[in-house]
Amino acid sequence: MLKFLFWGLIFHQSLYAQEISFTWLGTTGSYITDGKTGLLFDPVVTRPSLTQVMFYRPISSDQKLVQEWIDKIQMKNVSAVFISHSHYDHAFDAAAFTKTLGATLYGTKTTYYIGKGGDVPEEKLKVIQAEEVYTVGAFKVTVLPSDHTPLIGSYQAFPGELKEPLRQPAPASAYVMGGAFGFYIEHAKGNIFFLPMSTRSEKLHFNERHADVVLQGIASRKSTKDLLKELSLPAKPKTIIPLHFDDFSYPLAEGFRALFSVDPDEFVSTTKKLYPELQVTVPKHGEKIILYR
Ligand SMILES: [Zn+2]
User: What's residue 230's pLDDT?
Assistant: First the structure.
């Protein structure tokens, strides 16, 4: 009987190891794992206050907090950190996470200089281009072209590219955009679209790419209806998980506050009204959501 229970447990664990889960780190920070390999997208847990940002105060990654989050959500075997673009709310802790986890940092040339300034070894820095495909464990990650959503009208916050390594402490404004990407994540269990921006970029090849799950940035969207129609729905998802709706000028420890002018409740109610068959899962900081069993 004991032997039976033992093998039952082993069997259960091997099944468990194959589920794909997602954990939200706030903004578009995402941890995705199949139990064997972990991937990070835009991991940032150091959150400068609005005053620090507006008055160009030099700040540094909170190394202790980075380690706390690695432990808290039990990140393991993370060999890849992908950065969608280099604004501070997406890339400020890129070097800290990459170095602590011994991973490789994937991003634009600007992200490369953020890694370089954060002493990520040269062999762990990878400059990526749209349509390139990277195999990480059982995951296949395709880099997607993306436009950055304007903040207001056509105004882009912190534009530009880095031309040399960016060392901390540095003001948040030093983290210039440097181009933008989305990612298409394929796995035998199921596919995921990571779409941090709320504007449609051309050439996403939705006719060839499908995912049951879309991780969708909803900040600065013109309207929920257009965002769904133009960006999320062409991927033919069953589940949409909204991202980038929390106010990142408060520490994660202080709990959730909605980002100014980004109404997550409206996103959920409009989506449910327009597409009742679609599942909308609103994530919570640090809470694991099973995407595929
Ligand atoms: Zn941005």
Answer: 87
- Give the mean pLDDT of the chain: 92
Instruction: Report how far ligand 1's centroid is from the alpha carbon of 178 (Å).
Output: 10
Res 16: pLDDT: 47
Residues 21-284, CATH architecture: 4-Layer Sandwich (3.60)
- Alpha carbon of 207 to ligand 1 centroid (Å): 27
- The H-assigned helical ranges of the chain are 2-16, 50-54, 63-72, 88-91, 94-101, 109-117, 224-227, 264-274
Look at the pTM and tell me if it is higher than 0.90: yes
Centre of ligand 1 to C-alpha 197, Å, is 8
Q: How many whole angstroms from 148 Cα to the centroid of ligand 1?
A: 7
Residue extents of the structural domains in the chain: 21-284
Tell me how crowded residue 225 is: count the other CB atoms within 10 A of its CB. Answer: 13
* The two structure tokens encoding residue 224: 């929920």
* pLDDT band of 206, cuts 50, 70, 90: confident
What is the model's pLDDT at position 260? 87
Cis peptide before 251 (omega within 30 of 0): no
Spatial separation of the C-alpha atoms in residues 233 and 238, rounded to whole Å? 9
What's the 25 CA to ligand 1 centre distance in angstroms? 16
The β-bridge relationship of strands 125-127 and 104-107 is: parallel
- Please give the distance, rounded to the nearest whole angstrom, from the Cα atom of residue 192 to the centre of ligand 1: 21
Q: Is the pLDDT of residue 146 over 90?
A: no
How many Å lie between the centroid of ligand 1 and the Cα of residue 212?
25
Strand order in the sheet with 29-33: 125-127, 104-107, 78-82, 38-41, 29-33, 20-26, 288-292
Over residues 43-48, mean pLDDT:
98
pLDDT bracket for residue 196 (50, 70, 90): very high
